[in-house]
């Protein structure tokens, strides 16, 4: 797998980290003034399935659509008819250039995204398009259908105009009324993380801190953190019965490609066994307080990596080397594992932790 050609479709939010890169896995200069003074503030704190502008335009109007499952084709058909009374992106001329985008959640990647054509210069666009999803009905019943309306300007920037979300688990597919076109009022973006409460599976892992004593010094000056990724359990299926999962590891705040390690991909199972150990050296005792181990699980499909869930193991203080950061957000279980590791050097500390949604740091070049 080539990292340069793959696309990670986890999140559009990102934060930039800049530091000197002297060695592939060394953390010895993480807190040096030359490296950390360039740590910028975190941006894009909204975890979203979209890229675009959420705040500038009011949400108003409605959308007319219908859904149906065609058993003979094993397809979900979303018939997007029209919208009316949308907000005007161009206030002077009272018009927008709207289009409709649909997602099946929790699959937020390119496999789950469909969209209509853009209809220009109108607040009442007519589409009459069918957006099709090839998906088993049993899988469909675990999904939510999200329809969102967007204005696309001449620079291809998107502005959010509203959305509707249907829970397909409770949808009555046999009711003929449900196959008729209906008007739905457009709503504001609701939860920034629609899938926070969804079950993303678990990771079984073990951590160990190995201090490295220096000749002539009583206390060790640096050490290694060993991360043993054993297996994952009950990973979510985003594309039918197919899954080809692997685990990435990054030691934040270093988001350089050199700091990242990953396991091999394991296919055809929601309970992949990796048994892969990653070693990071150059950890001084103070780095253990400021750094964070980010483990993320991905489904590899063609040239795309789809985010499944992750962990952030650290002290969860909200700060790193004196700077407030979003990624220092470890849960109580993640903090407990890190604390045990720090307090029990040269000992493997094992845990099974629930995977969760993360706002992923984009890898710096």
Brief descriptors of the model:
4 helices; 20 strands; elongated; 6-stranded mixed beta sheet; Immunoglobulin-like; 4-stranded antiparallel beta sheet; single chain; 39% strand; mainly beta; 365 residues
Number of strands: 20
Helix-residue proportion: under 10%
CATH class of the largest domain: Mainly Beta
Proportion of residues in β-strands: 35-45%
Shape: elongated
Number of domains: 2
Integer-rounded radius of gyration = 23 Å
The CATH topology label of the largest domain is: Immunoglobulin-like
CATH architecture title of the largest domain: Sandwich
Question: Oligomerization state of this entry?
Answer: single chain
Spell out the helices and strands N to C.
Answer: EHEEEEEHEEEEEEEEEHEEEEHE
End-to-end CA span: 17 Å
Average predicted confidence as pLDDT: 79
Low-confidence stretches: 1-55, 191-197
Derived structural class? mainly beta
Keywords: Cell membrane, Exocytosis, Membrane, Repeat
Main location: membrane
InterPro entries: C2_dom, C2_domain_sf, SYTL1-5_C2B
GO biological process, one term: exocytosis
């Amino acid at each position: 797998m080539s990292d340069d050609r793959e696309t990670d479709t986890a999140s559009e939010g990102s934060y930039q980290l800049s530091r000197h890169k002297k060695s592939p896995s060394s953390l010895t200069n993480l807190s040096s003034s030359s490296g950390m003074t360039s740590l910028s503030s975190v941006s894009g704190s909204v975890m979203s399935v979209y890229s675009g502008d959420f705040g500038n335009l009011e949400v108003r109007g409605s959308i007319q659509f219908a859904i149906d499952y065609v058993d003979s084709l094993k397809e979900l058909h979303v018939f997007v008819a029209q919208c009316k009374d949308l907000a005007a992106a161009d206030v002077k001329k009272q018009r927008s250039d709207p289009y409709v985008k649909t997602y099946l959640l929790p699959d937020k990647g390119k496999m789950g995204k469909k969209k209509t054509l853009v209809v220009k210069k109108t607040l009442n666009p007519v589409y009459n398009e069918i957006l099709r999803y090839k998906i088993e009905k049993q899988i469909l019943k675990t999904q939510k259908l999200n329809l969102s309306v967007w204005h696309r300007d001449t620079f291809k920037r998107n502005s959010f105009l509203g959305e509707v979300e249907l829970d397909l688990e409770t949808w009555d597919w046999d009711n003929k009324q449900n196959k008729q076109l209906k008007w739905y009022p457009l709503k504001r973006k609701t939860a920034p993380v629609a899938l926070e409460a969804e079950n993303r599976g678990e990771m079984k892992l073990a951590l160990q801190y190995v201090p490295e004593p220096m000749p002539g010094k009583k206390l060790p000056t640096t050490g290694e953190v060993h991360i043993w990724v054993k297996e994952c359990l009950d990973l979510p299926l985003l594309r039918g019965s197919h899954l080809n999962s692997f685990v990435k590891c990054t030691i934040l705040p270093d988001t350089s490609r050199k700091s990242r390690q990953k396991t091999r991909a394991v296919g055809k199972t929601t309970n992949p066994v990796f048994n892969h150990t990653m070693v990071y050296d150059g950890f001084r005792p103070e780095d253990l307080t400021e750094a964070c181990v980010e483990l993320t699980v991905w489904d590899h499909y063609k040239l795309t990596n789809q985010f499944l869930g992750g962990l952030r193991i650290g002290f969860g203080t909200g700060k790193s080397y004196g700077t407030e950061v979003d990624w220092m957000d470890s849960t109580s279980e993640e903090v407990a594992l890190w604390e045990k590791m720090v307090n029990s050097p040269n000992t493997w500390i094992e845990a099974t932790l629930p995977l969760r949604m993360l706002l992923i740091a984009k890898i710096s070049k």
